[in-house]
Design a protein that fits this description.
The protein has 408 residues and is mostly beta strands. The chain is 4% helix and 65% strand. It is elongated and about 115 Å long.
Length: 408
Amino acid sequence: MEEMNRKADAVFMTETLFDGQTEQGVELDHVLPDYYPEIFRILKCCLSPRVISAAVSGNKIMLDGVVLIKVLYLAENSTALHCVEQRYTWSKTVDIAGKAENLCGEPRITVVPRTDYCNCRAVSSRRLDIRGAISCRITVTCPAKFTLPALPDGMQVLTREVSCCTEPIYADKQLAVREDIETGAPGIDYIISCDAYSTEYETELTTASLKIPTDQRRADSQTSVKSTVACDGGEVDSIWDCRGELCSVSCRPDGENGLLVTGQVCMTVIGKCAGGTPFVAEKQEAFEHTIPAANVTPDTSVNCRASVSNTGFAIRSDGSVDVTVQADISAELTDSRQFSVISSAAVHQDKLKERSDEFALRICYTTGHESCWDIAKRCGTTVEAVMEENEIADRSAELSGMVVIPIV
């Protein structure tokens, strides 16, 4: 191919700058207001973390967040359920390994907070000591741009067509109902140069290795987790609230089976015992679920999201509670391919290739695994000349036997 036929001047890829997590402690000494009844028994304490803002400055990630602390307790000689809520604000700075100048201008930050543990005790009848910890899974990505070089005239160029995307465009919108959002980022096929040479002069090439992601695909599934929750105070009389929460969910390729999703479901039941005393009962149940997916390899990147879609309960005849939690699981799969491409090329016109004018044709014997490009480059001729002389229609076909090499 004497001239380079390229559809675009650049290739955009998503580069991961940071993928890790950070931890934040929670310590709160809270005194009840005068209008709250005194604490007799603590039923439950929970932490609900939220990230308010996330930004990248230089080679640091700066996070600001808040933790909503909720404590359920009983007063003495009372069956009324009391609730105390308090907000705990926090800030965190995380270092990104690498030099700041290598970061892109507009990184995309994804932060998923979760509660690691929570302890609560009554120091006195009006004072609470709350200790806990949260962790945040942080992913920072940015579009990396690789500019395809303009190659000098007169070079033979081997190109390969690769399916990838244009410059990434992100769109966010708050919706009351389900709605499709047009991002204006259609897919496109790039033709990138991966090898080149000159039939007349010595050439010098600089190559780069690109990891280009393919189109994303999704695998969706549902799973149900069932367990029995008992009340320490005796038989259950009525249920006020029943909920399930997913924690420690992970997803990984599982060979020919597809994707293996593991995690735990924390089930919480709030209600009233037969004697009229409120109770809070919790239980964690581990689960394992397989999502069928084709063409999954250990190199497949998986981004998994799981959420509770429904929680149901039924009071058994023995006074315990059967809890069923249904979860929706969605996985985004991305395969990446490694390519070696030309980043720069130079033709040394002061260095002619050694040629012999004593003959017009050469005969080459090959045992296979060589294409027209391989033979033409090795023999210093053009691909088109080899194809025309040997009546070959497919330039990528593997050749074997005798091949006539015209001298150009």
